[in-house]
Amino acid sequence: MRTVYSGLVDESFIGQTVTLYGWAHRRRDHGGVIFIDLRDREGLVQVVCDPDRPEVFATADKCRNEYCLKVVGLVRARPEGTKNDNLISGGVEVLCHELEILNASVTPPFHLDDENLSETTRLTYRVLDLRRPQMQKNLRLRYRAAMAFRKYLDSHGFIDIETPMLTRSTPEGARDYLVPSRVQDGCFYALPQSPQLFKQLLMMAGFDRYYQIVKCFRDEDLRADRQPEFTQVDIETSFLSMDEIRAIMEDLMRTVFKEVLDVELANPFPVMQWDDAMAKYGSDKPDLRVNLQLVEVTDIVADSQFKVFSGVKSLHNGKVVALRVPGACTMPRSEIDAYTEFVKIYGAKGLAYIKVNEAARGREGLQSPIVKNLSDDELAQIIARTGAKDGDVIFFGADKAKIVWDSLGALRLKIGHSEFGKSTGLFTPGWQPLWVVNFPMFEYSEEDQRWVSCHHPFTCPLDGHEDKLLTDPEHCYAKAYDMVLNGWEVGGGSIRIHREEVQEKVFEALKIGKEEARQKFGFLLDALQFGAPPHGGIAFGLDRIATMMCGADSIRDVIAFPKTQRAQCLLTQAPAPVEEKQLRELHIRLRNEPKKEHDIAGQ
Amino acid sequence: MRTVYSGLVDESFIGQTVTLYGWAHRRRDHGGVIFIDLRDREGLVQVVCDPDRPEVFATADKCRNEYCLKVVGLVRARPEGTKNDNLISGGVEVLCHELEILNASVTPPFHLDDENLSETTRLTYRVLDLRRPQMQKNLRLRYRAAMAFRKYLDSHGFIDIETPMLTRSTPEGARDYLVPSRVQDGCFYALPQSPQLFKQLLMMAGFDRYYQIVKCFRDEDLRADRQPEFTQVDIETSFLSMDEIRAIMEDLMRTVFKEVLDVELANPFPVMQWDDAMAKYGSDKPDLRVNLQLVEVTDIVADSQFKVFSGVKSLHNGKVVALRVPGACTMPRSEIDAYTEFVKIYGAKGLAYIKVNEAARGREGLQSPIVKNLSDDELAQIIARTGAKDGDVIFFGADKAKIVWDSLGALRLKIGHSEFGKSTGLFTPGWQPLWVVNFPMFEYSEEDQRWVSCHHPFTCPLDGHEDKLLTDPEHCYAKAYDMVLNGWEVGGGSIRIHREEVQEKVFEALKIGKEEARQKFGFLLDALQFGAPPHGGIAFGLDRIATMMCGADSIRDVIAFPKTQRAQCLLTQAPAPVEEKQLRELHIRLRNEPKKEHDIAGQ
Fold first, then answer.
1. Distance, in angstroms, between B407 CA and closest chain A CA?
2. How far apart are CA B460 and CA B466, in angstroms?
3. With a threshold of 0.90, does the pTM exceed it?
4. How high is the ipTM of this complex?
C-alpha cells in the first residue's frame, strides 16, 4: 500500500522512505537528472531520478506523460530557491530508489494542464479529462456536499428510503422515459421524474421523516443546464407547518455551505411573497446580488396620451413597469440599442427609456423619444416613484404581466451582471439566499387550453383558498416555496394535500376526469383515505448546487459521465442500436428502417 | 412540533405536558374511559381520554383505528399492575387534554397486528403494510446498515461518485432493460446491470477509491429473492492487492455488523479456495453453520464392480462423492426417500446410501441396497475416509461434477437445516462469514456453445494463468473473490484487467470478435491505453444483507415498494399501457394489439 498520497507529501515526511502510486504528470530532463511530477488525486510531488541509480534512471528515461508508476524513495527538502508555494508538497521532493512502470500510456490527445479544450474533446476522452485536477476537485466537492446533506438529515431523524426506478407513467408533468415490459406485453414502466408520490406514500405509511439522494429523469429537449438524468436531494416530513419545514431546510443549507465552503449564509433567509418577487424582480427566482428593482407605474400612466402605456389596460393583466438604472446615462447608445434587441427575446415589442439628465429642469432635463408623449405630471410621478436621480436611465416595459416581468427581469440581470453593472456597484458578489413563497396554484396553458399546476397537482392551497380552486383558479395561491440562491432555484417544495376531497377538487380544476384520476392516481387517493397525515417537503437540485459551489460553468463539470445536449454519451456512444431479438422480447418494433451501423458510428 | 415520538415517552417525561402526533393503533372503551394506543414510527403510548373533559371524550369517541391524531396531554405513571414491560412507554400513560383528529380513516382492510396476511394483500395495501411495526423496523435497520457502509467508506477515503443510469446495452451478461431514445431514432439506452465499467473508468481517471450505493437492473425471470431493480454497495480501489482489498472489505463488514446488530463477525474471515469449497461443500457459497462435509471417493471406486460408481470415469469430470450424516440411522425410511426425490431436482439420477449400523462387523454391519455391489476393501476405505461411526448414514452422488456438487451440496443444506439436523447438532446458529477465492475464469455454456465468464469479462486471471486463457480455459483461474455469509453470497468482486492486451485475449477466449469488442467496449479498450492503474473492487448486495440482518423471509420485506415475481407493482399497477403519442415520439410501435383497459385492470 502507499505510504501517503503524492499530493500530501509535505515537510513532515522529510527523512522517510515513502511508497507512492500515481501518474507521470510531466517529465523533464534537467542537467542530467530526470524530474517526474507524480500526480494522484491529492496533487503532485516532484520525484528526482538520479543517474547514480542506473536502473531507476533507465526506467525514468522510458517514462512518458500519463504513465502509471510506483515510486519508492526518500523524502528530502527541496534546495533553497526551488520551493513551490502552490503545492502542499512544494517544499519537498522524493529521491527515487525504486521506479516501476505499472502501465504505459500512448501519447494523450491533450495535456492535462490544457485549459482550452472543446467540450466534445473533453467528453470523448472523459477518462483523461477527469484526471485534470479541477475535475478531481469538482467531483470531490460534490461528494462532500452530498455527504454534508446526509449527515445533517441523518442527525435530524430523516431516513433514506429507496423508491422505485421502474414506476408508472403519469403524463401530468414533463415527458417520461419509458421502459418496455417483457413480461407484460404492451405495457411500460416509466423512469421517475421525481419520487414525489412515493415520498408522500411514505409519509402516509408513518415514516415521519424521509430523504433520498436520487436520480430523476426527464425526456425534454435539453437546455444548457439540463441533463436527461439529474440528482435530487429529496426530502419529506409529516406534521410540520410550512414555516417549520422552511426553518429546517434553510438550517440544512447553511450547514452544508458552512461545512463544504466555510461560507455563512444569512440567518434567517429573507422570505418574499411570490407576488412581490414578480413585482420587484420580474422573476420567481430573483438574484439579490443585483441591486436593481422594478417599480410598477401602471396607475400613473393609466390615462396617458401615450397609447403604448395607457393601452395596457385593455390587456389581461396588462402592466407598465419601470426599471431605474443608476448612472446609466453614461451608457453608449449602442448598449441601449442592444438591450432593446435583448428584451425582444422575451416577447417585448420594444424598450422605452428616459435618460434623467437633470431632473430639476423637469421635462427639459429628460431625454427620450417618449417624453413628448407623457404629461408633466406623469413624468414627475414616474421620477418620484422610481426615485430617479440625475444620471439615471429609466427603462419601461408595457405589456401583459408575463412579458413585462420576463423581459425587464432578464434586463435587470443582464445589466446587473454587465461590465457596467459590476463597475458601478449594481452587483454585490457573495451568496444571496432567499425563500419565495405562496406561489399561484395554477398557470393557464394556452397550449392545453386549461389550468395546469405551477408546482405539481399534489400541492396544498393556502388556508382559505380551497374554495377558489374551482371558482377563481387564477387567484388561488399555494403553500409552495422555492429556495433561491443567486438567481437560481436550488430547491422547491410545498405542503401537500392530505385530504382526499381537496385532492379530487384539484384534479377537477386541472380537468383530470374522475375516471382518469382514479386510473392514474388511484393508489394515492386510496392511501389518502387511511388517515393520511399533514405533510410536506422539498427537493434540492444537487447538480445545480454542486455547480454553484464549484464555481463551475456547467453542470457537466460536476457530473462524471454527463450527456450532451442531444442526450448522448460521447464516451460509450449511448444510446445505440440494439439487436432485433431484444426488441422482439419486449414486444415492440421500430417505426422506421434501422440505421446501418456505420451511419450510427458516423453521426 | 411534537415534544417527542409517542413510542419514546418514558418515565423521564412524567409530570410534563407533551404534544404527540400519530395514529390510533387501537381504541378501547373501558369502564367509561377511552384508551387510545397512539402509534408513530417509534412505537406506541397509551392515551387516556377521561369523561371529565367532555370535548376530548367526544372526539375520542369518534376516533377509529388508523385515524391520524394530535394529542396534547400530561404524562403520568401507569397504575401499579398495569405496566407493560414490552414497551418503552410501558410505565406511563398520557392523560389527554386536547385531542384533534387530523384526518379520519375508512376502516382498514386488516388490522396492523395481523400477522397472517397474504403477500398480495400486503403489496396492494402497501401503505398500511408499511405502518406495521415490523416493516418500520426493517426499513430503518436497512437505512442504518446503508449509513454504516457509507460512514466506514467515507472515513477510509472512498468517494461516492454517481454513474449514469441511462447507459449502453452490452448483451454480455443478463438481459437489459431498454429505454428508447426520442432524439436518436432507432437507438436505445440500457439501464445498468451494474456500474462495472464506469467504476473501472473512474479508477483509470485517478479517483483511487470509489463507492456508490446504487440501483442496478436485470430483466430476468424472477426467482423468490430477485427483484428487477436491486441495490448494490459498489466499491472499487486502485493499487491494492487482492489480499489488501479483502482485508478492507471484511473490516467494513465487521464494522457494519457491529454497528447495526452489535454482532462480532470472525476476524479474520476464513479464506477458502473455490476448488476446496466445491469439493467440501458442493457450493461456492457454503453455509458453514451446517457441520457436514462432502468427501470425494472417486479413486476408491474407480474399478468397482458397481458400474454406477466406476462408470463416472467415462464422464467429463465425473465424480463419486460421499456425504456422511452422523446419527442418521434413526431417520425414518420416508425421510431418506424424500431426499432421493429432492436430489433429482438437481439432476441426480438417484441417491445411494449406506447405513452404518455396526462398522466393526464389516459388510454385515452395513445396511444398503448397494453394499452387495461393493468389495470389502472398497467399503472399508469408504468407511475410513468418511470417518463414519456406528449410527451414521453415508449418502453418495455419482455423476458429472456439477450434478454431484449441486445435488449433494443441496442435500447437505437440507439435512443441516432440517429438524433432524438442528436437534442433532448438525447446525450451529450464528454468523459464519468466509471468503471463497480463486474462481475459475470461465464456465462452459452448453446453450451458447462457448466459454462464458464466471464473474465478468473484466476479471484478471491469476498470475501465471494468462497463457491458459486461450490454451486451457477450463483450468484458467481468476483473481475473483466472493464474500459468503451463512450460505449466501453477500458480495462478489475481483481484481480487474488493467492491460489492454490481456483484455483483448479474454474477449477472444469469450469468442467476442475484435470488431464486436471494439464496437461494444471500445471506450474501455481506449481507456486502458492511457496508463490504467491496477485496480479491483467488490459489490455487496444491500437487499440481501438487510434481509439477513432483519431476519426477514424475503427481500421484499426490506424494500418499501417491491415488485411481484411478475415484475409488477401492485400498488401503482406499473407497468401499464401508455398513450400512442408517447410511442410515436419514441419511434416504436407495439408488435401486438394493445389490450383494452379493462383487461389490464382485471389482470
1. 31
2. 9
3. yes
4. 0.95
